[in-house]
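Q: For a teaching session next week I want to show students how multiple molecules come together into a single three-dimensional assembly. I've collected the sequence lines for a complex. Could you give me the predicted structure tokens for the whole thing so I can convert them for display?
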Amino acid sequence: MTLLAKMEAILGPEGLIRQDADRARYDQGARYDRGVSLAVLRPADTRQVAACVAAAARHGARIVPQGANTGLVAGSTPDDSGTDLILSLERLKDIAIDGDNASARVGAGVLLSDLNAQAAAEGYALPIDLGADPSVGGMVATNTGGARFLRYGDMRANVLGLSAVLPDGRVLSMGRGLRKDNTGPDWKHLLIGTSGVFGIVTEVELRLSPLPGDTAVAILVPAGPDTILPLLRQAERRFGTMLTAFEGMSGAAIRAALDHVPSLRDPFAPDPVPDYAILMEVSRTAAMPGDPPLDDLLQGSLGALTEEAPELLADARFGRPGQGWALRHALSEGVRAAGKLIAFDLSFRRGDTMRFCARMREELSLTHPEAVVCDFGHIGDGGVHFNLVVPPGSPCATDPAAEAALRDRVVRVAVRDFGGSFSAEHAIGRRNQAYYDAYADPVLRGLAGGLLRTLGGAGIGAARFD
Amino acid sequence: MTLLAKMEAILGPEGLIRQDADRARYDQGARYDRGVSLAVLRPADTRQVAACVAAAARHGARIVPQGANTGLVAGSTPDDSGTDLILSLERLKDIAIDGDNASARVGAGVLLSDLNAQAAAEGYALPIDLGADPSVGGMVATNTGGARFLRYGDMRANVLGLSAVLPDGRVLSMGRGLRKDNTGPDWKHLLIGTSGVFGIVTEVELRLSPLPGDTAVAILVPAGPDTILPLLRQAERRFGTMLTAFEGMSGAAIRAALDHVPSLRDPFAPDPVPDYAILMEVSRTAAMPGDPPLDDLLQGSLGALTEEAPELLADARFGRPGQGWALRHALSEGVRAAGKLIAFDLSFRRGDTMRFCARMREELSLTHPEAVVCDFGHIGDGGVHFNLVVPPGSPCATDPAAEAALRDRVVRVAVRDFGGSFSAEHAIGRRNQAYYDAYADPVLRGLAGGLLRTLGGAGIGAARFD
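A: Of course. Below is the structure for the complete assembly, covering every listed component.
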């Protein structure tokens, strides 16, 4: 029997897609990547996933697991060989909320928005915030972080257990929804953030958090780049665990968003957009008897800060949280619309983030004066979406070698000179493979190879760690 | 050259302890365990640790790493063969606080109390709370959880990076103090909670949290066992991230502590100690302008709860936080003093914790009516220190086989019938090895074996995972 006939026997006719037109939305990634698959497998449950993986392993065919296909590193799309099999988890849609355990057991194909709609009915949320609407399985595979990381952590911090299909088709369950469990090596961490290489996650149990009942937002204008970190430390000291976001936005990124999305409210009008601004959010679960409104608390506290440390803050604007977040979430789209975008997903020790940006601005003003730095990011966790926008006709927009050289230089400065990460929250996929190959510790690469040998299969998916 | 001569050449005379009297405090564990070592190695830095491990690997000698020796599962002490080498990390004492990064880079031998004294000067803490004063390296090796887990997580949630000496003596650094870094498998998680088997952690970078400025405590008396979970959910909904502890204490454990430590204040006097009570703590980093005192908030909120849901709460007592925590931290000592103690460190899905305790109480009342159940634990994270106190002359106190049979039964019910963990926060060590051997998934044991082969050495320390 041919491989595809075998897959059809496993999946039934509705579980296998072969026509070009029907495969198109699976072959096309969210932003950059597009490939050509042999077929799309749409298993209905973990058992079918396991049977598909075992059959592919016996035929030496490569499977690329795919969730909602919103990733940014070509981790969920096929290459252009026409031989990859896409394995879509989109039919694994079960959601079971356990209110007492404050957890949810969900299929890998469940969308974040669907999980949060059901969780909200019980007063809970998976509070990982990002612009896209990924599937839970994809969030595990990339270890999604997002804009409220400083309060709620990444996926890793919220996964209580998972089931996965290993490269040879065996099914493994790890964790049983327990919060404390130290009965040996916690192997599930090797399935988190690794794009499915060591196994395809089919089911996840997630810790939920109480739904915030009350949120207030301010947009801060720091007096200068050197006051951003002191402002963060003041915010942490004053608000502690109520601080749920501290997001930096360069003026160039803000202007690009305002230009591109006319419905956005300019929080600075009629004044000009400043060089840099911070979206700060505080939240509480519920107001308690005697509690002042949260907006009053935030304004009062920032007022007190302005009196105590007038050198830190040039301005603070208040408004409805939805408006601030609409601006924040429009930055990415605005920057893409502003010209040819060369985007980096970097992170640093928190004290280094702004130093790196300043250093690159200075260097690029000499070597690439046409490039506009439109950075924004997560000051609270050291992450920075370092974006360069170059004019359509410039060398880096027209010559792939020039763009690649610029990319390599930025990454080298980030990793070698600043000890930073070349993939803060997007994982590896095909897009970051060359940087993994360049910078990963050879001992750790050896461990990945040893693990794959023990798992009895070649790795799954687009990335390679050995 | 003999092994010990080689060790002396590496460490110098002050780095090697051979005399019985000088080795005694290293050979003796915190509570249960006592062994006989060949010698104690006291390296001064990571380089010396690596040289010792390499030399031991070449001689086929077993090294048992040791921190402050406060563990409860015989993970840091030698067996009684007289051939094990204890490797003490006590000389690795460097502490470097990075305030901007809200992190600390510390040697494995640094005590939690010493780290927190230095961190407090910068307004930070490593907020993992437990009765003992362990070393940071030991906390990583056991993945310490503790009483404020529901707010701050375990060590795993707070480790930003570490350096470790692998079983063949190579040194590996993982993580560079970054919060977001998804550049491949996050191997450091295999070094956390694994008692040093895959490598000896010599240096750790830890995320710090802002020091709480304001804390209030109440002791709640639930109306019955069935109201404990609803009370937790109410507390989470009302206090959200301000809730820093929700600790259950059985009446039997409280009475044992009050009997044993006369300086403790009985929070219920002159009323009798209830069947069950909960120590609930809320914290905030700083009061903000207009904020009512935290004690008022807590009392007001519990008052409102009593009006809204009078069926949940029988009573609530308020007092100074220090008094509540003194009682909580005396439970363990009190229970040990009450008779022959048979202790379990279990965890469950949160909804199962009290059901397990009720089931065991019922079964034991038939089979072991002489046993007093003195449970206490972490209702907020499902952990329970399930303690049985039996009279000195009873079979389980005098016959090791009877005790072992009882142990095995309690663990079997916890793991098999309730899907729980037989080691919530104490890890494996020698004491839990038999349960690992009985309950670990064979596939995962195979992974451990494959990893050790790739690491090029037998495992380090007292536990075995292959």
